[in-house]
Design a protein that fits this description.
alpha+beta; about 300 residues; two-stranded antiparallel sheet
Length: about 300
């Protein structure tokens, strides 16, 4: 008499969690791919995001690395959703194996990229990088912990192969990790972006008041939010605009901020200092006026 083998498969609830995490990852990497391909402004409160996205490590064989991530996250989300809809009477362990391999690829690549972030971009904080690493780690842990011992044994060899292949692809795609091109290639000479917007009377008056009150905006020439803040004031207001450049000699790995910025304890760009208080991030003109009035009262 034939004995029916009972096969453990990923529970529907686990598959839904995997679908949600992978979908968030796909959206994140789709956004980063759009920024990379169309050279649009990157929303990030720290300077590390732009540094990483414009470095040689942001591409693999001329293709944005985030595009590979988007496709992998999307594939994992699709497989996980399919697994959540399968019938218990007809389990298919192929889906579980595919999830394990996909999450292994994501987790191994993220581990390598976090290593590079901490060795090649020392001092840079990349929130998008940490988000992707958290998502991929969550996917891998959730996938592996949902498997039985027998499934883990069966998946060990192909998982090891995917892990080794992912690391090898990044190694040969980037070049030796010990001989980084980030420091050599990613050098930004100083170039002040040109403000083009026409100033409103309110913006001109506010710039003059901020300057008279001793307020300062600390920023970096490559910071998109700093430029957008200047654009909000307009070109006519730049005559009195109280701006302090934190990298007047350009930027490269290891470059130190200007002494004025260090003294003001600037941690992010832009940083406004109004009435002795540090305010990080781009502000609307009414918000700046309110802060100025508060400091003056």
């Amino acid at each position: 008499m034939a004995t029916r083998m009972i096969v453990n498969t990923t529970a529907p609830s686990t598959s839904i969690i995997l679908t949600a995490l992978a979908s968030v990852g796909a959206l994140e990497t789709a956004y980063l791919t759009t920024v990379k391909l169309f050279n649009t402004s990157l929303v990030c409160p720290t300077n590390g995001c732009s540094s990483v996205l414009t470095s040689s490590y942001s591409e693999l064989w001329g293709i944005p690395l985030s595009l590979f991530g988007m496709l992998t996250y999307g594939a994992v989300a699709a497989v996980a959703w399919t697994a959540s809809c399968r019938s218990k009477e007809n389990p298919d362990t192929t889906l579980d194996t595919a999830l394990t391999l996909g999450t292994t690829a994501l987790a191994s690549c993220s581990a390598v990229l976090i290593y590079l972030l901490n060795t090649e971009f020392k001092g840079s904080v990349c929130l998008w990088c940490y988000l992707s690493a958290s998502l991929s780690a969550g996917l891998f842990i959730t996938s592996v912990t949902s498997m039985s011992g027998r499934q883990l044994q069966a998946a060990a060899a192909p998982t090891a192969t995917v892990l080794a292949s992912s690391v090898a692809a990044l190694y040969f795609g980037f070049g030796s990790f010990g001989q980084s091109t980030a420091e050599e290639e990613f050098v930004l000479p100083y170039k002040s972006p040109t403000v083009t917007e026409v100033s409103s009377p309110t913006a001109v008056t506010l710039a003059s008041r901020l300057s008279a009150a001793g307020a300062k905006m600390y920023g970096a020439f490559w910071c998109t939010h700093c430029f957008e803040q200047k654009q909000a004031f307009g070109v006519q207001a730049m005559q009195d605009f109280p701006y302090v450049e934190c990298y007047p000699e350009g930027w490269q790995r290891g470059a130190k901020v200007a002494a004025a910025c260090e003294s003001a304890n600037v941690k992010a760009f832009p940083t406004w200092v109004i009435g002795g208080r540090n305010i990080e991030g781009e502000l609307l003109l009414p918000e700046l006026e309110a802060e100025l009035n508060k400091a003056s009262s």
